[in-house]
C-alpha cells in the first residue's frame, strides 16, 4: 500500500499526483536499496566538483583503469549481456536492435582501445586556452575550456555506449547521469559498477550514476538545479520526445540520419569499393552506417556498379 499526504486545498492536487508530479510526501514499502532520484542527482553535482578538482593525469588514470576492467572482467560482462540477449529474444526485439545490444570479445577490445585514446586526449580538455584578446595594457581576456557541470545522457539498446560516455565525462570533468534502454538492464548495471570502481580511488564514484526507471526520467527533466545539459542518443522519436518534455534544461539532440556515400566519376574506384563495404557491411546496425549510396551516372555503365552490387549481395 502506498500513501501520499498533501494539501487538499491545492487546485487539482489529486489529478496532479496521479499524473506523476512530485506533490506532498509519498510513503511506500519497498525492498530496494536504491536512493531517491533527487539524491542521486545531487550526488552527481557534488561528484562533478570532485572530478574537476582532479589533476589531468588522475582523470586519465581513471579512464585507463576502466579500460583495463573491460578486459579483466570480460567474462562477467558477457554473462550479464547474455541475460539481456535471452530476454530480448523472448520479447521479439528487432534484429538490428539485437545486434546493437550484443557485446562480444572483439567489441570489448575495441571499446577498451577507444577508452585509452580518450585517456590520452584528456590532458588538454579542461583549462585549455582557446583564445587570447588584449583589452588594454596589462589586461588580457582569455577564453578557457571548462566543464559544463552535470550531463544527463539517454541512450537506447547499446550497452557499449555506457563506458564510452562515462569516459568522455571523466575526460571533460563533467558529472553524468545515464539512462539506458530497459533491454540492456543487466549489462548496464554491471558496467556502471566498473565505472564507479575506476572512480573510487579518487573519491568521485558518485559523479557518474545510472538511472534505472522510466518514471525517474520525468523527474530528471525538471531538475534544472541539478542538470545542466541533456543529450538523448537514439532514434529521432526519442530525441523529439525529450526535447518536448524538457522545459528548462537545454537538450543537445540530432535530427534524422543522413549517412550518404558519394562516388564521383574521378574517384579511385578500388578505394571507393572498400569504403562502401566498410561503411555498410562491417556493422550495418551502427547509427553511422551508410544509408544511401550515390554514384555518378557515368559509372553506371561500367564494371564498378556491377562490382558494388555483387559485393553488397555477397555481404547480405
TrEMBL record:
Pfam families membership: Aldedh
GO terms of molecular function: glutamate-5-semialdehyde dehydrogenase activity
Top-level taxon: Eukaryota
Any one cellular-component term (Gene Ontology): mitochondrion
Residue ranges occupied by any Aldehyde dehydrogenase domain in the UniProt entry: 32-300
The protein's name in its UniProt record: Aldehyde dehydrogenase domain-containing protein
Species annotation: Bracon brevicornis
Amino acid at each position: 500500500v502506498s500513501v501520499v499526504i498533501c494539501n487538499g486545498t491545492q487546485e487539482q492536487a489529486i489529478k496532479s499526483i496521479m499524473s506523476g508530479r512530485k506533490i506532498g510526501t509519498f510513503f511506500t514499502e519497498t525492498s530496494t536499496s536504491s536512493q531517491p532520484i533527487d539524491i542521486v542527482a545531487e550526488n552527481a553535482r557534488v561528484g562533478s566538483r570532485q572530478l574537476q578538482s582532479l589533476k589531468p593525469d588522475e582523470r586519465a588514470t581513471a579512464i585507463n583503469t576502466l579500460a583495463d576492467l573491460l578486459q579483466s572482467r570480460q567474462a562477467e560482462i558477457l554473462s550479464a549481456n547474455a541475460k539481456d540477449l535471452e530476454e530480448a529474444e523472448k520479447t521479439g526485439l528487432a534484429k538490428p536492435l539485437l545486434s546493437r545490444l550484443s557485446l562480444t570479445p572483439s567489441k570489448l577490445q575495441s571499446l577498451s582501445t577507444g577508452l585509452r585514446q580518450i585517456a590520452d586526449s584528456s590532458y588538454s580538455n579542461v583549462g585549455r586556452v582557446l583564445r587570447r584578446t588584449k583589452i588594454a595594457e596589462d589586461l588580457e581576456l582569455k577564453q578557457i575550456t571548462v566543464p559544463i557541470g552535470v550531463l544527463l545522457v539517454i541512450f537506447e539498446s547499446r550497452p557499449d555506449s555506457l563506458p564510452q560516455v562515462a569516459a568522455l565525462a571523466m575526460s571533460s570533468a563533467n558529472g553524468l547521469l545515464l539512462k539506458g534502454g530497459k533491454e540492456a538492464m543487466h549489462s548496464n548495471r554491471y558496467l556502471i559498477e566498473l565505472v564507479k570502481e575506476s572512480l573510487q580511488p579518487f573519491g568521485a564514484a558518485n559523479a557518474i550514476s545510472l538511472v534505472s526507471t522510466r518514471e525517474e526520467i520525468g523527474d530528471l527533466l525538471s531538475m534544472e538545479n541539478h542538470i545542466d545539459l541533456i543529450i538523448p542518443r537514439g532514434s529521432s522519436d526519442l530525441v523529439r520526445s525529450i526535447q518536448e518534455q524538457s522545459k528548462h534544461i537545454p537538450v543537445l539532440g540530432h535530427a534524422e540520419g543522413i549517412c550518404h556515400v558519394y562516388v564521383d566519376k574521378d574517384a579511385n574506384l578500388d578505394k571507393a569499393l572498400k569504403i562502401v563495404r566498410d561503411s555498410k557491411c562491417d556493422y550495418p546496425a551502427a547509427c553511422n552506417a551508410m544509408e544511401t549510396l550515390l554514384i555518378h551516372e557515368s559509372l553506371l555503365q561500367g564494371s564498378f556498379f556491377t562490382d558494388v552490387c555483387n559485393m553488397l549481395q555477397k555481404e547480405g
